[in-house]
Amino acid sequence: MKTLHYQPYIDELNRMLKAEEFAKRLPLFKDFILRNKIDNKNMVAQLGEKVLDVYLGQAIRLYNYSETNSGTPTNYSGKPIEVPLIVFYINRYSMFGDDFYDEITKELDESVKDLLYFYDSINSKYFVTKENLGEFCDKLSIWYNNALKKNKQYSIEKKKIRLQKELDLLQG
Prior knowledge:
The structure is a single chain. The chain is of the alpha+beta class. It has one domain (42-171). It is built from five helices and five strands; from the N terminus they run H-H-E-E-E-H-H-E-E-H. The chain has helices at 7-25, 30-35, 92-96, 101-112, 130-171, and strands spanning 44-51, 54-64, 84-89, 118-120, 125-128. Strands 1-2-3-5-4 form a five-stranded antiparallel β-sheet, covered by helices on one side. The longest helix is centred in the C-terminal third of the chain and has 42 residues, at 130-171. The termini are far apart.
């Protein structure tokens, strides 16, 4: 007679149920949470590298700050944090390059400043509470799509100037 071993299936089911419960709290990251069976038992949980239509190429993380996990973000000097914060590292250099950095940085920072719990400008990290997450992501998406359009136009203008210089050189 064969012995059936159900425990691995029960463990997997429990992981899936915990992930489903966690995904209900953060629906913007539902697909990533469910696909990777992530629960909220650790101090730090990765939520993916993409939100809405914005691919950051860096992990978006949930930090569970509380009395038992007393830690603070780098460069933070405020009162102890006792709420979970979602952290977005937005590397505008890798997204758009050096030439275009200053203009788009100001636009993003201005559009989300009232939604942030903390902004680490040195490391380009945006700390957001769950309550402000949806609006932050909407503004991030709007900023990203506008920046893509502006960057495309900027690249066209740079190419136009370069080609005009080449033409001038050829005409002598």
